[in-house]
Specification:
2 copies of one chain form a homodimer. Chain A has about 325 residues and is mainly α. The first copy, chain A, is built from 17 helices and 2 strands. A two-stranded antiparallel ribbon of chain A has the order 1-2. In chain A, α2 crosses α5. The two termini of chain A are about 20 Å apart. The N terminus of chain A is likely disordered. The interface between A and B is large, with 43 and 44 residues.
Chain lengths: ~325, ~325
């Protein structure tokens, strides 16, 4: 079967099930965000609305809502408020990422920076983050405030670490894991742990959901990075080869470097060091990806985290909510969006 | 005397007095910031240290410390922590501002973005802001958390508003005041109000210090903007004409527009609309600034805010601390740095 990864349409069902189940709540999260982003400054309103409407799976918000539900939170408001915060941290990060990566499209929609420029996008990112802190403060739970503010610092650290290692073809796999732990998994684990905090769970339950989230986040990011060498744009909503052209070294390239011969390693070192890579560079690299089954190897490694994530839920009694969170772990690997 | 503003060296004495009086505390603020910015990511440590060491008057931190002192705070720790927060919000803003304005020097020192690039600077700004929230959360006062997070949102809004009106020579004076209220005065007033909150002041005292801070901030920004058409670099530590070349319309230009004839207004509209302005444009503009005494007129208007600021302290009994805060108001107008 070579480099072809089966993108099972059915694998999306866990996500869709979750989204349907929490549809009403998610709608309230969206409304809250919209309401909170109102600003006397018209441009901010326009930009943040555009940015937030350009989609996204709202997966992190769903994780907070569902983790609260799993652990017995029956009321409403705190879960809505904090799911909105988690999503706002993610959105603020994306705004700055798009500036940093000079991205012009996100999920097929023009990015905020490509329409209104980098300068306003930086500031609107700051605005989203500040508003998010305001909502958290209103909620008033100091443990959650502590968790989410330190998460926000971690994300920035992860992004800097990633920048610092740009173009480094011999990046250690462990450094790569450090990077995605900070830039992606930290927010996933904060999202699920926040859910547990909302319902007043005990330490054990909080730790379990934190671990579920972190490992799910790692699996997601590895899959995302792997599919950058595989997925078709129309399925995945992102351009193939984006990381490669930006000089970001991810697990598929690390895999080639681990398995390749001297000549191939040399080639990788050379092209990743360059300021710009050509389409020919990409074709040659794709041939190596194919030769060493680098996408499959990466997804195989992601499976490890999928399993740890799945197993972290063992302490919870069986329930519909637990089942959905469990099936969501395989969504991280087999998804078409 | 034409356009020459007397820069009384003695006017700095209020600031120096304040700095000397709070020297030990300020040192603790600096150490706390340094300690909090430690990161496993080496580059972040290097960049934030460089950025924080490139000076600044630490005026906002001093305002928090002194407001707490004025209202009777006798202990230590909370004032240090929160003065550090106020300074970190300011620093994060400056980092992003330098990227947005493409500045290469700040107070004669190379900016972080000019050494390490825009991308890392955006992220380190996010990191500073997140760390600052962590310190606030540790302090745990929800009123202060609410105040400082909404202030952070206001700063971003002010900066966007400023961007939005770039190149607009017929900017209304009221819009200009709105902008500096958000981008500068909001943090000044939050700094002083925070001091009052720390000492458990009553609403009246909080409001008085908030008003003192806001009006001081307005005066400071107007003076800063006015001196951009006057101050010598070596005195003021900023390049003259910076705002002009960046297309930022501030009170001196607004003044020319208010007083100028049709031809002069037309000239201003034309040159401010351009993407870049030449040195000749600047010379011609300076001639108009001189003709209409625009710097003096601006500083005269700033005096109004200086007085409101001074008078806001009336409710406090006379003391050494009150006297220093009072004299600080004229420092905003007559300073050589």
């Amino acid at each position: 079967m070579g480099s072809v990864i089966p993108l099972k349409k059915s694998a999306n069902s866990a996500y869709l099930e979750l989204k349907n189940m929490l549809g009403v709540k998610l709608q309230k999260v969206e409304s809250l965000i919209e309401q909170k982003l109102k600003s006397d400054v018209d441009l901010i309103k326009k930009m943040s609305e555009h940015h937030l409407k350009s989609g996204g799976k709202r997966l992190r918000a769903l994780l907070t809502l569902e983790s609260a539900k799993l652990t017995g939170y029956k009321e409403e408001i705190r879960d809505i408020n904090l799911a909105a915060c988690v999503e706002l941290i993610h959105s603020a990060t994306l705004l700055h990422d798009d500036v940093i990566d000079e991205s012009s499209l996100r999920r097929g929609v023009k990015t905020t920076n490509s329409i209104w420029g980098n300068q306003s996008s930086i500031l609107v990112g700051d605005y989203l983050l500040s508003r998010c802190f305001e909502i958290m403060v209103q909620d008033g739970d100091l443990e959650i405030l502590q968790l989410l503010s330190s998460t926000s610092a971690k994300i920035a650290q992860g992004e800097v670490l990633q920048l610092q290692h740009k173009g480094e073809a011999d990046l250690l796999e462990e450094t790569y894991i450090d990077i995605i732990n900070l830039k992606t998994a930290a927010l996933f684990s904060a999202a699920t742990k926040t859910g547990a905090c909302i319902s007043g769970s005990n330490e054990k339950e909080k730790k379990a959901l934190e671990s579920y989230g972190r490992n799910l986040g790692l699996a997601f990011q590895i899959a995302d990075d792997a599919l950058d060498y595989y997925a078709k744009e129309k399925f995945f909503g992102k351009e193939i080869g984006k990381d490669f052209y930006e000089g970001k070294v991810t697990l598929p390239l690390i895999t080639i470097f681990q398995k390749g011969n001297e000549e191939e390693k040399e080639f990788l070192m050379e092209i990743m060091k360059k300021n710009k890579r050509t389409e020919d560079d990409f074709s040659e690299t794709l041939a190596l990806i194919f030769k060493y089954k680098a996408v499959e190897t990466s997804l195989k490694k992601a499976e490890y985290f999928v399993n740890v994530s799945y197993d972290a839920l063992a302490i919870f009694p069986d329930s519909e909510d637990k089942r959905i969170l469990q099936s969501l772990t395989s969504f991280s690997l087999n998804r078409s969006f």
